[in-house]
Write a structure and sequence with these properties.
The chain is an alpha/beta fold. Helix content is 34%, strand content 16%. It has 2 domains: 322 residues, Metallo-beta-lactamase, Chain A; 29 residues, no CATH class.
Length: 370
């Protein structure tokens, strides 16, 4: 195993971190972070984890800090790992639950008449995140979260939002706190960030985390608009935050550092867009571009642009298909052979089944699984 990957789990040690006098982050307890903002008569929770077990563990830690009731729950977006512990934080009461009204394509917290390939996505999600594998023998992490996390109660604590925030955003007053909710599409179209101006704290959801951005999730997702995500990063910088509280990985402090990090993040996305588009215009295929487009060294060496979660090659393929569709421009692709027919022809070209089996055994002995 690569030393960098082997050391990566140490980054996700469980802790509750005080980011400001009334802001707390529960980190390493689940795939995503949970934030508590303490007000005068109650607290605000930002995101709720993927399982009721993780949410219960986090709430127990928060209750060591304050016994004020949860008055408001804010969901930055509809991904399962952010919405699935809401019932735990509600504690049997009826807090206000706020989410964006932008359709996300995710049926978890929105009603949709459109059937989706749920079973296929479930299987691919299990494979991507190693669900069911044992820690640390079979899984060490999930890129932007710990591998050692509770999975009991996965998706069990989802509650429907009590109110949706429109495209123009909204400033809310709750628990003596004034919070600005801003629609900021990026990793998902329904993303909503929270700006707490009194503390210059920005809760950015999954529009930033310490990894190259997941511009395409291999579990299967709709096209994530690269240009929109880059523009949203400009919007985040416009707040000039001194605390950046992401949905995954550790919070950042200091206006200058945050500006540098978000600038690099934006530039990495735009670099992939520019290089892929230029290659497409030059007649390069998707496979050629996936192998040739790289981040420049000044970006690739940054710890927050390492490919722990997102991958440049996956992003290139996603941009190619997302902007031009599945047809690669090769006429033979329009009436492609079936997999069986294609395999039969390749075997004949390779000298027959015995020759192919011999090469397979040789490759397996060399750990060459391509």
């Amino acid at each position: 195993m690569h030393p960098e990957l082997k050391a990566h789990p140490e980054y996700f040690q469980k802790e509750v971190v005080q980011l400001a006098d009334n802001i707390y982050m529960a980190y390493g307890f689940a795939a995503s972070n949970v934030y508590m903002i303490v007000g005068d008569e109650g607290v605000v929770i930002v995101d709720t984890t993927e399982t009721t077990t993780a949410a219960t563990n986090v709430l127990a830690e928060f209750r060591k800090i304050t016994d004020l009731p949860v008055k408001t729950i804010i969901l930055t977006h509809s991904h399962r790992d952010h919405v699935s512990g809401a019932s735990v934080f509600a504690e049997g009461a009826n807090p206000e639950i706020l989410a964006s009204d932008i359709p996300s394509g995710d049926p978890l917290i929105e009603e949709t008449p459109h059937p989706r390939p749920v079973k296929a996505q479930q299987m691919r999600t299990k494979r991507q995140f190693g669900i069911g594998l044992s820690y640390p023998d079979e899984i060490i992490g999930i890129g932007v979260g710990p591998g050692d996390r509770p999975l009991i109660g996965m998706g069990a604590g989802i509650l429907p939002p009590t109110r949706r925030i429109g495209r123009t955003g909204e400033t809310i007053s709750t628990c003596g706190l004034e919070l600005q909710l801003v629609i900021a599409p990026g990793e998902t179209p329904d993303h909503m960030v929270v700006w707490y101006s009194d503390k210059k704290a920005l809760f950015s959801g999954d529009n930033f985390y310490r990894s190259f951005p997941n511009l395409y999730a291999i579990r299967g997702t709709e096209y994530r608009d690269f240009d929109t995500w880059a523009l949203t990063l400009d919007k985040l910088m416009s707040f000039k935050p001194e605390i950046l509280a992401p949905g995954h990985t550790k919070a950042l402090h200091g206006e200058a550092l945050i500006r540098e990090v978000l600038t690099d993040y934006r530039d990495a996305i735009r670099h992939v867009v520019d290089e892929t588009r230029n290659g497409m215009d030059a007649g390069m295929t998707m496979d050629q571009l996936a192998h040739s487009v790289k981040l420049p060294p000044k970006l690739a060496e940054k710890p927050y642009l390492r490919e722990y979660y997102g991958c440049v090659a996956y992003a290139v393929r996603a941009y190619f298909v997302g902007t031009t569709g599945w047809f690669d421009g090769n006429p033979t692709s329009l009436r492609a052979l079936s997999p069986v027919e294609e395999a039969e022809r390749f075997i004949r070209l390779a000298g027959g089944a015995d020759a192919v089996m011999s090469e397979i055994e040789k490759a397996r002995g060399e750990d060459d699984y391509q």
